[in-house]
Write a structure and sequence with these properties.
Rossmann fold, about 30% helix, about 30% strand, 2 domains, Dihydrodipicolinate Reductase, domain 2, globular, homodimer, alpha/beta
């Protein structure tokens, strides 16, 4: 086995504590050697206030995981890539498509790997759904992603700021799965609901069409209390597919055919190690492109103010 | 000289009468053989209500120019490419970036040429500005595009509809020049002003940064009466560049160094004939990508209602 990759983590918030640290702790491909964050800290390793301070002090670093809000990711990524460190980008990979294109160019120029991570693509039943759909004739598909923002993103002001994506923050997870399992598609119409006191939408209804003319709908709602829905449905000649639980369970005609424990972040870090060892990048911008297209094409509704 | 390309024009409105018909009339590379439009007509050739009717009736057609509003361009382009006709897309090339990517794939698959035309790139002083900037060290740049929508787009409802771009309809002309003469750049912030009764912005202030950290600003305003501004300014070590008149005049430190008569559409059709003869496509999506990024990242202001 190769030497572990010496990695630093930047932006120590909820997702780092919930997902990144547990995944890294169990993975022999990595050794976590430092962290940088304005507020958060990681126990038992050196902590720094900024990525610049971390890179200056910890020469052995080979890679960094960037987990701050997307509005601040570009500068950190540029700093790390310029210092010839491999870079893992939390999702979404940036605040604009063009800035991530720029990072791709910089990574290639500096001979390091860039990874635009889409954790939901590594949900346990996604590959089974992809295999099923590629063997079937699809008639239509529907993406229903409805959750309670107060439960999953309590008091996260950045998510409501311009560039914070609003309900497209979970919606981009749905898109990262849909663009992996469905044929190429593009948006034909969209309606985005903006709370009157917020810069980002709380709900959206989007219609897509695939290259071969199939209709795909996407319904995003951030005010869903009670049961939460993270489902992709497809009507096919081989039955009605339901990929539910954010990609964790696959059923055909009501019969559960695939379910296993969730391991998205361990799979993401496995993939990152693979591309670092292989000397390549993995940057698929299709999910982010659809979000940008939805904002450009979408009709804006103003709805009731939102308070946490 | 080769045989003229037998071309049909679709969506007969103001831009077709003002620009496409005069350019085609003078160009021996083309023979205009048919037109399709819901409302407009072209004299002395067969006219049809739809592109489908035109393609069915006029078998000799080799190419089509698609000039309807962007919201309706994809379906027509798909129909034409599927019938193995070369396609000239007026700007903007589509309502989303993803749909134009889909058209590129289809054109390649059918062995025909697709042209995403950006007429302002062919303004007379643009190449001189590009040459100047590539020989100078740029410190900063500013795009100022301020015009009177009531004068240039009177009662054009589609331009205010979702997907109609609003002030980014002229703004994308500025971007088509800027992305051609300046280094690669991306948006870092944007503010978009939406009239309270309209779905598209009437003004926008956008800041970009180039890969090497230079600041670029863009100021779009659709309520400018009196003198109109379509200018790109750059502060450089070789002097202050002003490319004015939508790319028609170039001055350095106040001295006019390039001015010649405007011939954008004749140049566009020359380029289209070139790519058709060469069997290639020419589809640069950078200007449209920046618009999508501005809508995604931008802060929305609601401003006074707009009435024509």
């Amino acid at each position: 086995m190769s030497q572990p990759i010496k990695i630093g983590i930047v932006g120590v918030g909820k997702i780092v504590r919930d997902q990144h640290l547990p995944a890294l702790a169990k993975d022999q491909d990595y050794r976590l050697v430092a962290a940088a964050s304005r507020h958060g800290k990681v126990d038992d390793i050196p902590n720094f206030p900024t990525i610049e301070a971390m890179l200056d002090a910890v020469a052995e670093l080979e890679a960094v995981s960037l987990c701050m809000p997307p509005q601040f990711r570009y500068d950190a990524a540029r700093t790390a890539l310029t210092a010839k460190k491999h870079v893992f980008l939390e999702k979404p990979p940036g605040a604009t498509v063009s800035e991530v294109e720029d990072l791709k160019t910089l990574a290639a120029h500096n001979g390091v790997s860039l990874f635009a991570s889409w954790h939901s693509r590594y949900a346990p039943a996604v590959e089974a759904a992809r295999a099923f759909l590629s063997s079937a004739r699809i008639r239509s598909a529907a993406i229903n992603w409805k959750e309670d923002v107060r439960r999953w993103h309590p008091n996260q002001e950045w998510i409501w700021a311009p560039g914070g994506f609003g309900v497209f923050d979970p919606g981009i997870n749905a898109l990262s799965i849909a663009t992996h399992i469905l044929p190429a598609m593009f948006i034909t119409s969209a309606v985005l609901d903006f709370p009157e006191n917020r810069a980002s939408p709380v709900a959206a209804r989007v219609t897509f069409r695939t290259s071969n003319g199939l209709p795909v709908t996407m319904d995003l709602d951030w005010l869903q209390t009670g049961p939460q829905s993270w489902d992709i449905l497809a009507d096919t000649d081989k039955g009605a597919m339901v990929l539910s639980g954010g990609g964790s369970k696959l059923a055909i005609d009501g019969k559960l055919i695939h379910e296993e424990p969730e391991a998205e972040y361990p799979m993401l870090y496995k993939r990152f190690a693979e591309i670092v060892r292989a000397g390549v990048s993995d940057v698929d911008l299709a999910p982010l492109q659809h979000v940008a297209d939805a904002f450009m094409l979408g009709k804006r509704n103003v709805v009731e103010a939102f308070f946490d």
